Amino acid sequence: MKEKKNSKLLNYVVGTVVVLLVITGIVSIFSSGASKIKEMRLASKAEKYASYETFISPVIMNDPDTFDDVSKANQSQLIAISIWSILRDNVEPDKYEYTDGGMLMPEKEVEEKFRVLFGDEIKISHTTVDGGVEFKYSEKKKCYIIPITGITPIYTPDVLEADEKTNSIVLTVGYLASEDYSQDAKGNLVPPEPAKYVKVTLRKGQSGEYYVAAIQNAEQS
Question: Whole-angstrom Cα distance, residue 145 to residue 68?
Answer without folding.
Answer: 31
